[in-house]
Write a structure and sequence with these properties.
With 358 residues, this protein is α/β, with parallel strands linked by helices. Helix content is 39%, strand content 18%. Helix 10 packs across helix 11 and helix 11 crosses helix 12.
Length: 358
């Protein structure tokens, strides 16, 4: 039996789970208050606190030895999908030169520290970081030279859903075409063609979500930026938009409750949410060479049967629909790492200069 510890650091929590081969033994979430995190200027300043809390969890569950630790991948920059070996160069890159400061950048260092202490220094990995990029060149171009579309989003969960969808279809992931949308506070979507994510819609394109604005008319957007400034606009578009802007809540359940009470504005916003998701699915479907075997909705808002039914109805001409509500990130980390150590999947080793300014 292979003992695996997986670690997913988030903004105010660290999710930790133990697996024995492909079976979860336990899962816990360590939470932090804003006051606890306030003294730390940078994400990596939280490392000792988070590591100690994880070690305390392992002690609580009487874990003395592990065979594998896998961490959530951070904002490394464009990388191929799958497993990445954690080495000192990767950790330094995430610490000093990430694309963006984010708690997921800690995943690699936490996994390595756990292997150093509980795994006799064997290899640690990250898996499907948020900057996985296998987009086709034609999908990157925009109407302005030098500004390209990027592939940054919920790759870990969406690729896990892709594998589940393949299993449900009784086929190999490499033999099917899928469109998958992760809907939540921010929503992203991906087109999967024979095992590769060949096109991607980020959370600032097309559909709005619980908190993000999605795509907006450029002329109107420029006017607002001029009035409130770049920083305030960024906060508006990424934290106070979507359902939050229209309905003063980021909880879709609250919106549905208002609809049941006869709120016509809430009903219109809900329909627009579903339409935006459907438009995103249609956009990605035309990037795929061949028929779409399955359209999938995942993430927190996929628990809404009303939303799933609305999206399925609008996209029925594209392909059959299936919801995979919630997220499967811890499972994806464990199973990805397990495939690597069983020799069923290879891993990447990235070679970053230890000082990229030299």
């Amino acid at each position: 039996m292979t003992t695996i510890i997986v670690v997913n650091p988030g903004a105010t929590s660290t999710k930790v789970a133990q697996y024995q081969d492909d079976k979860m033994v336990w899962k816990e979430e360590i939470t932090y208050t804003p006051e606890q995190l306030a003294p730390f200027t940078k994400v990596f300043d939280q490392f000792d606190l988070r590591l100690q809390d994880i070690q305390d969890l392992l002690k609580k569950h009487e874990v003395e030895k592990i065979d594998l630790a896998v961490g959530r991948g951070g904002l490394i920059g464009p990388v191929k999908p799958g497993a990445i070996l954690v080495n000192d160069a990767l950790i330094k890159h995430l610490q000093d030169h990430p694309i963006l400061e984010h708690p997921s950048n800690l995943g690699a260092k936490l996994a390595k520290a756990l292997m150093d202490k509980f795994g006799q220094g064997q290899a640690a990995y990250i898996y499907d970081p948020v900057t996985v990029d296998s987009m086709k060149p034609v999908s990157r171009l925009t109407g302005i030279k030098g500004i390209e579309r990027t592939s940054t989003g919920h790759h870990l969960n969406m690729r896990a859903v892709a594998r589940k969808a393949a299993q449900d279809l009784g086929k190999a992931y490499e033999d099917i075409n899928l469109v998958i949308v992760h809907v939540g506070g921010g929503s992203t979507a991906s087109a999967h063609e024979h095992g590769q994510v060949i096109d991607f819609v980020s959370d600032d394109e097309i559909m709005f979500s619980a908190e993000r604005s999605g795509g907006m008319p450029v002329k109107s957007m420029l006017k607002v930026i001029k009035e409130i400034g770049v920083d305030n606009f960024n906060q508006l578009a990424r934290k106070k938009a979507g359902l939050q802007s229209h309905c003063q809540t980021a909880d879709l359940r609250d919106v549905e409750k208002r609809i049941s009470q006869g709120d016509q504005e809430a009903a219109l916003v809900f329909d627009a949410l579903a339409l935006g998701i459907a438009k995103t699915i249609a956009t990605l479907a035309v990037s795929i060479d061949g028929p779409v075997d399955l359209v999938c909705l995942t993430g927190g808002m996929a628990y809404s049967e009303k939303l799933c039914q609305a999206v399925a109805a609008r996209t029925s001409f594209i392909g059959p629909f299936k919801a995979y509500p919630g997220e499967f990130e811890l499972e994806a980390l464990a199973l990805g790492g397990l495939r690597v150590i069983k020799g069923q999947e290879s891993y990447q080793e990235l070679d970053f200069p230890m000082d990229i300014n030299s």
